[in-house]
Amino acid sequence: MMRAALALARRSLGRTWPNPAVGCVIAKDGHIIARGRTQDGGRPHAEVDALNRAGEAAHGATVYVTLEPCSHFGKSPPCADALVRAGVARVVSAMEDPNPSVNGQGHARLRDAGIAVEVGEGAREAGETCRGSAPIRRSVSCSIQKPASRRRRSSPGRRGRCRYGSCARVPRR
Ligand SMILES: [Zn+2]
Predict the structure, then answer these.
(1) Which of 79, 131, 135, 169 is packed most tightly, with the most Cβ within 10 A?
(2) Cα(46) to centroid of ligand 1, in Å?
(3) pTM for the model
């Protein structure tokens, strides 16, 4: 299921500026009932896109998402609230959102509402989906953060976190 969500995120790569490319799959009884991805231009977010497609069926379902659902009011209301309202039972999220205005609060909000939350499945691949596309990676820097040094050139596949505060400056191709 997370694989399907990651595939959706990859499909959105480079098209969701200024937001990261996120994929979301809603499943029930082992079947995918809705898929969503962050739409071109960054809105709606993947979770809301998928919830819109799932409708009532989202109640009691499991949501797989490649990035922590947002918890803050940006240009749209928080996805964490939308998931709570939809009555989903469980959220499996690949990684915490490094954006300082989310940073764990989305997961916390879901847990507070009684939703089971699991974090970490597909984290490495999810990190890659918010890193920017290869040809511009050198200038971008959705650099991989290393504890001691921050080298721009890092081997592909290293576990890292995307800082899309700086991804936001990626020029559109
Ligand atoms: Zn969101």
Answers:
(1) 79
(2) 7
(3) 0.76
